[in-house]
């Protein structure tokens, strides 16, 4: 029986929203405003309202968003930027691309987000910025991170590519959405993201008016007035057709989040008695919007489980099998004296199951039956 063919059911979601999306895309094509225009500005405004942030600057993709954010701070070659070692390559890639130095630190064993104490220990006179990643849909612990940044005069760039809609609660009860807490936030609208378009797309957030003006310049060839280039910039734009898709899907984002959280709860319940599985942790001060449902399993059988599921029609992914500092591209930044034990363990023991907005009870039951069947002898007594 093969019910599952992919990690995310983009086709099913499109079919549910097809009439609205087709109408929005058709109207955009008919307008012949393919770059910029009301669809892009309208989406930026709608996302500002949703996130509670002053400025959203759309761009071409999430990697560009990170690069533009760093360029906006005028960092110099050799400046150090602290990043978690357990994350997607883009987070550190743009740092190296700008001839900055990525300083990779360990993560929390429960949330998988950057370890606050590890940040503090990694700060040197060359440190200029911190990039917390809200991994798999749950916010990093932003209050102490911002306190550290203030104490050491550091910039904070949030990588919120996997956490759109997630909220973080401060000790005083104040809530903020991820990406709106640091000096700059970045996100991706890659199709499989919780808020995804039908191509590439990204955005940069900030509450700082001056930073917003600088970000817009950087993303637009370094110009604020056409043909007058004050700084070196890049060309990074969200096209109008993708904005039209996002304008429709943004209206359903909270519904998407609720659906993902329900799938996650179902998985939790199904695996509660399997001692070999540690289901995703939820921090008390952060919402989890479940971009991925990522479990910790016995490293000795992790790959065997993945193969078993594939043989039974259930895809599973390993995010991420190799730590950043052990990637060939980052060999010059590798320090063998560092102890990144949590990252090492996670790379060997995490596995992610399908999770999306179009789950049915039949799909859910089939996946959980396959996982449970694999571990049947290991049920808790």
Can you describe what's shown?
By secondary structure, the protein is an alpha/beta fold. It is built from 12 helices and 13 strands. The chain has helices at residues 10-31, 38-51, 62-72, 89-97, 116-122, 142-152, 209-219, 240-250, 253-271, 299-311, 341-349, 361-375, and strands at 55-59, 80-84, 101-105, 127-130, 155-159, 167-169, 175-177, 184-188, 202-206, 223-225, 228-229, 293-296, 350-353. It has a 7-stranded mixed beta sheet with strand order 1-9-8-5-4-2-3, with helices on both faces. β2, α4 (89-97) and β3 (101-105) form a beta-alpha-beta unit. The radius of gyration is 21 Å and the shape is globular. The model has no long low-confidence stretch (mean pLDDT 95).
